[in-house]
Design a protein that fits this description.
Chain A has 557 residues and is mostly helical. Chain A is 65% helix and 0% strand. Chain A has a single domain, classed as Up-down Bundle (Cytochrome C Oxidase, Chain A). Chain A starts with 22 loop residues before the first helix and ends in a 50-residue tail after the last helix. Chain B is of the alpha+beta class and 314 residues long. In chain B, the strands form 3 sheets. Chain B has a 5-stranded mixed β-sheet with strand order 3-2-1-5-8, with helices on one face. In chain B, strand 6 and strand 7 form a beta hairpin. In chain B, helix 6 packs across helix 7. Chain B is elongated. The chains are: A mainly alpha (557), B alpha+beta (314), C mainly alpha (208). At the A-C interface, helix 7, helix 8 and helix 9 of A face helix 1 and helix 5 of C.
């Protein structure tokens, strides 16, 4: 395919208002249909990925505003900005929106949707119409959530513990539970689609052992999506039944048990955090291999570790309940298993490091985001091990230590990986290169801002600052001010990519099919790809990450 | 400790010191496990920078022994800490016999404490140092959690059951106490302090604090005023179990199993009497769930505990 | 002859994918009900006497009749799937219609049963007056109502699916045997609804 690139428009020339088009763009999925209807009724996985990207970006902003309100109020020990009730609604909104409307769909529904068929050499997902339905279900759930916000919010925390949520809370508990319930359907259908796609639509020669590690991680994530989400759905339905119809099964006066709710909730919500992080781990494998121009060290162990995390992740939920009143034997078992589940993550990190050995490493923005991920994810994961230690958890459970731990993984990890993916596959998705300098700057500021925001929170937690606290003892103020200052930097750093990535859509130089020189079927087709991904179906004959390995002295110096 | 910023919480007990030691040692381990990663990433990214001449021949793709070793070795080291940590944790479930028992009722949004002789406190708890203290806790409404950072302890307080927490406080002083499980609007102001006093000072404080009577005496009054003695008293016409000496005795149930009559059993018998029917008795005890709050139930439990075998009590 | 949708290459690939998708969906449905079974297990373990007594008050024979209805309807659906695979649309449509009828009878019997329980003051509908011998019976009946209502919702969806397919096959607008996987998948869904009832029945009616 020839690339008849036109000159990109001169930013100085205000008369040049047309979006210059490359020959590739003209025949790509982006131009296959110009109407709004062609986007809203699309079954093209690439367009659906972009629909999701727009939606989750919006929700990231909503959740971010809630976080800003929280961090602003925490600048002072007294509750100066919001009332106690208002503060409770703010952090609940932050949690609900960020977990279900940003983190869970973020990588799977944008990059999983866009890349999965491309990476396995397929023309689309197994069920394209179901894919579109998933997006609409997600949007309906989002509308419900906005309705919750407009109608005053909900103040139970994103964990909806009973009997607080079922019997005592004011606010839109049922509507919020419904919103999450509906979002769950979207998750389940997406996972179903991905699993069948990986099983049935791999192109000739694409054996399981040749799959990119991102595909392995999406597959493992999909197993969790399909099996864990329904448990959340039924648990939320039980809360709604109690509030709406008085049908209580958690009510202690009827012989019910609040701990039963906690078991049901965490049986989903612990695997859910692996839904949030496994795709990120898969992204990082891709970024590291491409940055080092080397196969990932220990491919089998890394692929297997994704599956191990998915399976083991179902057996550790009780580590959220060490001080809940559950039996000490149960706690001992959950503590052990929680240590076990950390091991596969450790394998990945060590293998990434080994991949860099004797590589050809380029410090482009994707790799910087990958390094940020590794640094922050390791801190988050190791503090998770601290939390798995029973005697320590008794002290730091329900404190800012936990808040710091999960933000290191979710934000420092998963969001960094999301941004890394954006910076890596943007040229593929839109056919334009962006400014590498600005990419590096935002990676740096995200890393610095993040650490300033969340590292003080480990100290706050060990000092005894409980979470979900609006008002706090004055001796904690300095650490809170540091954290809020970091949050400001982080917020600005997250806004930066919007500017230069969107700028690149119009003014970026045309990206060829493979601007990074990476392996993978997605780089063997145009940037942006044509509607059906490949002109001719690919046939795979080589392993994944088939980079040239120097054996004897080569000429590359 | 500076007033401007504290970086480490005070230690109010020997146990606190042990937890600090554990986390300190563990932090050393995880630094050892992770520092090589950070260092090597920087080293490799520099040494093997694209375009920079370096020896890249025979770059390895896999090395099973290496991978197995960096799987197993960290795991085994972590298990060592697991054993240490679990040992500390299990101690929390084995309070020494004869510990001073203080009843706690958590409700939105305050903590109510009752000493055995009846002294009541709200949001502030006086305890003697050097003696084991066991808190028996109940919630009036939602899940709360009693958290004393200086003791490195917390325990959720769950409606529908009794949970407990024990400690031996060391240094006299005033330490912060907080609710650590989100419980609604005023969760962040549901706190107070725990005041550790030398035993002599504690004894003096007990005398000076007002009391309406011991918990057991108040329980006895409730036993009569709420009609319990109507069925469980000596002159009752109804066939109801005798409560003398009942506490911690095995009770055969009508389904053939046997339970120990601990505080939880006594509480459930009052509030959910149909749950476990004593063998040989009709299932006719009414529930007092709408009549008694958690504090009153705790007093009744204290009363029943005081009943020795063979007599009804004071 | 068979219509192959994007992105499939062959009808066989499309069919296999459709069936795999349905199996995965059914696995998620099983996980949905597993939450309810977990609550039932918990109640049984913590309040064994009340659960047994409450279970004795259930209408065992109505429940048994409903079980028989569903099992028979599943049998008919299996026969319908077989007919569809052989390209015999009319017999398949008849068998599906019979299954739909049995499904309606199930719902009717369930309604009768609810009415009886309402009269016995053990159906905890909002606003209904109830008289339980123990709080745990109230919890048991709460769970019973939730579980059977959720099952009834799934059964109704199944009835809808089968009815639509029966009409299409009767009219000949479903291309058989090329599109037989649609009937197979609807049959699988129906069988799952049946299997869930097979577990619900002993949990609520036969606790001894």
């Amino acid at each position: 395919m020839t690339d008849t690139a036109q000159e990109r428009p001169d930013p100085e020339n205000l008369a040049d208002t047309g979006l210059s088009e490359t020959g590739v763009e003209r025949v790509s999925y982006l131009r296959a249909g110009h109407t709004l209807k062609s986007w809203l009724l699309t079954t093209d996985h690439k367009r659906i990925a972009i629909l999701y990207m727009i939606a989750i970006t919006f929700f990231f902003f909503v959740g971010g505003v809630a976080a800003a309100l929280v961090r602003l109020d925490l600048l002072t020990p007294a509750g100066d900005l919001m009332s106690n009730e208002g503060y409770n609604r703010a952090f609940t909104l932050h949690g609900v929106v960020m977990v279900w409307f940003f983190l869970i769909p973020s990588i799977p529904n944008t990059f999983g949707n866009f890349l999965l068929p491309l990476m396995i050499g397929a023309r689309d997902l197994a069920f394209p119409r179901l894919n579109l339905l998933s997006w609409y279900i997600f949007m309906v759930a989002g509308v419900f959530t906005l309705l919750v916000l407009i109608l005053g919010g909900v103040d139970t925390g994103w964990t909806f513990y009973t009997p607080m949520s079922s019997m005592f809370a004011h606010g839109q508990v049922v509507l919020a539970a419904t919103a999450v319930f509906v979002a769950g359907f979207s998750s389940i259908l997406t996972g179903l689609n991905f699993i069948v796609t990986v099983h049935r639509l791999r192109c000739p020669g694409m054996t399981w052992g040749r799959l990119p590690l991102f595909v392995w991680s999406i597959y493992a994530t999909s197993l969790i999506l399909v099996l864990a989400t329904p448990v959340l759905s039924v648990t939320l339905a039980l809360i709604a039944a109690e509030r709406l119809f008085g049908l209580g099964v958690f009510d202690p006066a009827l012989g019910g048990d609040p701990l039963l709710y906690q078991h049901l909730f965490w049986f989903y919500s612990h695997p859910a955090v692996y839904i949030m992080v496994l795709p990120a781990l898969g992204v990082v494998s891709e970024l590291v291999a491409a940055a080092a121009r080397k196969p990932i060290f220990g491919y089998s162990f890394v692929a297997g570790s994704s599956m191990a995390i998915a399976v083991l992740g179902f057996f550790v939920w009780g580590h959220h309940m060490f001080v809940s009143g559950q039996s000490m034997y149960a706690s001992a078992v959950f503590s052990f298993l929680s240590i076990a589940v950390a091991i596969p993550s450790g394998i990945k990190v060590y293998n990434w490091t080994a991949t860099l050995y004797k590589g050809h490493i380029s410090l482009d923005p994707p790799f910087l985001f990958a390094m940020a991920f590794i640094g922050l994810f390791v801190v988050g994961g190791l503090t998770g091990l601290i939390l798995a230690m029973l005697a320590v958890d008794v002290h730091v459970h329900d404190t800012y230590f936990v808040v710091a731990h999960f933000h290191y993984i979710m934000v420092g990890g998963a969001v960094s990986a999301y941004f890394g993916a954006l910076h890596f596959w943007w040229p593929k998705m839109f056919g334009r290169n962006y400014s590498l300098v600005w990419g590096r700057i935002s990676a740096l500021f995200i890393f610095l801002g993040f650490n300033l925001t969340f590292f003080p929170q480990f100290l706050l937690g060990y000092l005894g600052m409980p979470r979900r606290y609006h008002v706090y003892p004055p001796e904690f103020q300095v650490l809170h001010v540091l954290s809020s200052a970091g949050a400001t930097i982080l917020g600005l750093a997250y806004a930066m990519p919007f500017v230069y990535l969107l700028h690149a859509l119009r003014y970026g130089s045309p990206a060829g099919p493979n601007p990074w020189g990476a392996t993978g079927l997605e780089w063997q087709t145009g940037s942006p790809p044509p509607k059906h991904n490949f002109e001719t179906p690919p046939v795979v004959t080589r392993p994944a990450y088939d980079y040239h390995i120097e054996m004897e002295r080569d000429d590359d110096g | 400790m500076s007033d401007f910023v504290t970086l480490w919480p005070g230690q109010a007990s020997a146990y606190s010191g042990e937890v600090d030691l554990l986390i300190g040692a563990f932090t050393v381990l995880i630094l050892l496990l992770s520092a090589p990663v950070f260092i090597l990433i920087v080293v490799f990214a520099t040494k093997y920078r694209r375009g920079k001449p370096a020896n890249r021949r025979h770059a390895p793709n896999r090395n099973v022994w290496l991978e197995v070793s960096w799987t197993l070795v960290p795991f085994l080291l972590l298990i060592g800490f697991y054993i240490w940590s679990t040992d500390l944790f299990v101690r929390l479930y084995h309070p020494p016999a004869g510990a001073l028992e203080i009843d706690v009722v958590a409700k939105q949004w305050m903590w109510k404490f009752k000493h055995p002789e009846g002294q009541g406190e709200i949001d502030e708890l006086h305890v003697p140092s050097g003696e084991p203290v066991r808190l028996v806790m109940a919630s009036q409404d939602v899940v709360h959690s009693l958290f004393v950072p200086a003791l490195r302890l917390k325990q959720d307080v769950v409606p529908g059951r009794y949970t407990s927490m024990w400690f031996t406080a060391g240094k006299p002083g005033t330490y912060r106490l907080a609710c650590a499980e989100f419980c609604g609007t005023d969760h962040s102001v549901m706190g107070g302090s725990i005041v550790v006093m030398a035993p002599a000072d504690y004894a003096r404080w007990l005398e000076e604090a007002g009391t309406e009577g011991t918990l057991a005496a108040e329980g006895a009054a409730l036993f009569r005023s709420r009609g319990c003695s109507g069925c469980h008293g000596p002159s009752a016409t109804v066939h109801a179990p005798d409560l003398a000496g009942l506490y911690m005795r095995p009770v055969p149930l009508s389904d053939g199993t046997t339970v120990i009559a601990d505080a939880q059993y006594l509480r459930d018998s009052i509030l959910l009497p149909q749950a476990q029917i004593a063998a040989g008795y009709p299932a006719i005890m009414p529930t007092f769930a709408n009549v008694l709050d958690e504090e009153e139930v705790l007093k009744l439990v204290a009363y029943i505990k005081s009943l020795k075998g063979g007599e009804e009590g004071q | 002859m068979a219509e192959v949708h994007e992105p499939f290459a062959t009808p066989g690939q499309q069919r296999e994918a459709a069936m795999m998708g349905m199996y995965i969906f059914l696995a998620s449905e099983m996980m949905l009900f597993s939450g309810l079974f977990l609550v039932a297990l918990y109640l049984r373990l913590t309040h064994p006497q009340e659960v047994v007594a409450a279970s004795r008050q259930m209408h065992v024979f109505l429940g048994a009749a409903n079980t028989a209805l569903l099992l028979s309807s599943s049998f008919l659906v299996a026969l319908a799937v077989e007919a569809a695979e052989g390209g015999r649309a009319r017999p398949a449509a008849r068998r599906l219609s019979a299954a739909v009828l049995l499904g309606f009878f199930f719902l009717a019997l369930k309604a009768v049963e609810y009415r009886m329980e309402y009269g016995e003051k053990i159906l905890p509908l909002p606003g209904a007056s109830t008289d339980f011998f123990a709080p745990a019976q109230h919890a048991f009946m709460n769970l019973y109502l939730i579980a059977t209502a959720l099952h009834a919702v799934h059964l109704t969806i199944g009835i809808g699916l089968l009815a639509v397919l029966a009409v299409r096959m009767q009219r000949g607008t479903l291309d058989l045997p090329a599109r037989r996987v649609v009937v197979t998948n609807a049959g699988l869904y129906w069988h799952l609804v049946d299997v869930i009832w097979i577990f619900l029945y002993p949990v609520f009616y036969l606790a001894r």
